[in-house]
Structure formats: C-alpha cells, structure tokens
Amino acid sequence: MASSRLPRRRALCLFCGASEKFPPSFRAAAEALGAGSVRNGWRLVYGGSRSGLMGAAARAAMAAGGEVIGVRPRGLIAAEMPAAEITEQIHVDTFHERKAVMAALADHFVALPGGLGTLDEVSEMMNLAVTGIQAQRTWFLDIDSYWRPLMALFAHFDSYGASRPGFEATYAAVESVDALFAALDPKR
Predict the structure, then answer these.
(1) Can you give the pLDDT of all 188 residues of the chain as single tens digits?
(2) Are 15 and 118 in contact, with CB atoms under 8 Å apart?
(3) Is residue 176 in some structural domain?
(4) Rounded CA gap, 42 and 125, in Å?
(5) Host domain of residue 68
(6) In a domain, 188, yes or no
C-alpha cells in the first residue's frame, strides 16, 4: 500500500464522477467544494482524474492554494487523464487499495454525484463505519436532489430491519457546500 509523504492534517476524501456529462450545477458544486476545502482548512483527497467533477474540485482547490492528493489505480492511467497540477499523485495497483489509501488519509468522506464507482466507494466506507472498523462519516452533497433516491433506499433498508444499529450515524445528506462546511466545523 502506498502512503502519502505529506504531513498529516485534516482531509476530506471526495468520491464523485469523472464524467463530463453532468449538469453545470454539479460542476459548480465541485468547484465550490474544492475552493471551500481550502478556505476551511481541509486538504482534498480524491481519485486523481482531471475529468468531470473530480477534476473540477481538484483544480478549484489548487487554484485556491490548497493541498490535493490524487490516488489512482495504475490500470486507469492509460484510460483516464491524470490531474497534472496537484500536490501529490499516489499510484496503487487496485481499486480496493485505492479505497484503503483514501480512507487512511481521510477524516470525512464527501460524495458528490457519481455513478457505480462512487456508490461502491461510499458503500464500503459506510460499511466500515457501521462495523466499527473506522469512524469517519460519509457526507452526501445532495445537489439538485441527486442522492434523494439513495436516501430513500437507506430508509427502505431500515424499514425492513436490514440496517445495522448505528447505520444512520454513518452518513448525512446536505444540500449545499456551505451546509457541509458548517456541519464539519460547527464552531466556525
């Protein structure tokens, strides 16, 4: 497993899509998250792509003078353009290793809109939290109600008794970047 050479400070791990097809409101939220992470004293850990919401958040954080760490599986290097202008790029062998490195660097997880890969990432982080393996919470940035169907699925799980005790404490949904940072730093 790779490890970061940067000194440890609080970090947000961003899970989101690399698609260029998302609406402008999603890109604006990614940019606001990137810039807001710097303003609020967080470094950004993400999947390392320059495409889609990933790239938008990373560029905004770097433009604001922040630290950005990309974690990329070697198999994606040929298929997806890596972000060139970030603080550090960590290369790993597998997606599983990528999630482990990102989790080790993170204090909280944030999910912007994404697809199956994003769902895989947040599901694993929430499962690790509910089983007590890690304590980080996953925050869903619910731009334009993107995550509302997933929140309904979580409620459906609970209605059938399929959720472990404490599951509801592993995640929260917020509707704006400002609400996210207010929840992360309530005394600010």
Answers:
(1) 444 454 457 999 999 999 999 999 999 999 999 999 999 999 999 999 889 999 999 999 999 999 999 999 887 655 555 556 899 999 999 999 999 999 999 999 999 999 999 999 999 999 999 999 988 899 999 999 999 999 999 999 999 999 988 899 999 999 999 999 999 987 76
(2) yes
(3) yes
(4) 19
(5) 11-183
(6) no
CATH of the domain at 111: 3.40.50.450
| Structural tokens at position 8 | 């440890």
Count of domains observed in the chain: 1
| Measured distance CA(65)–CA(93) in Å, rounded | 29
- Position 2 in a domain: no
- Tell whether 47 is covered by a domain: yes
DSSP secondary structure letters along 81-140: PBPSSSSEEEEESSHHHHHHHHHHH-SEEEE-S--HHHHHHHHHHHHHHHTTS--PPEEE
| Residues making up the chain, counted from first to last | 188
Which residues make Cβ contacts (< 8 Å) with residue 111, sequence separation at least 6?
A: 14, 15, 16, 118, 121, 122, 138, 139, 140, 141, 147
Please state the pTM of the whole predicted model.
0.89
> Are the CB atoms for 102 and 45 separated by under 8 Å?
yes
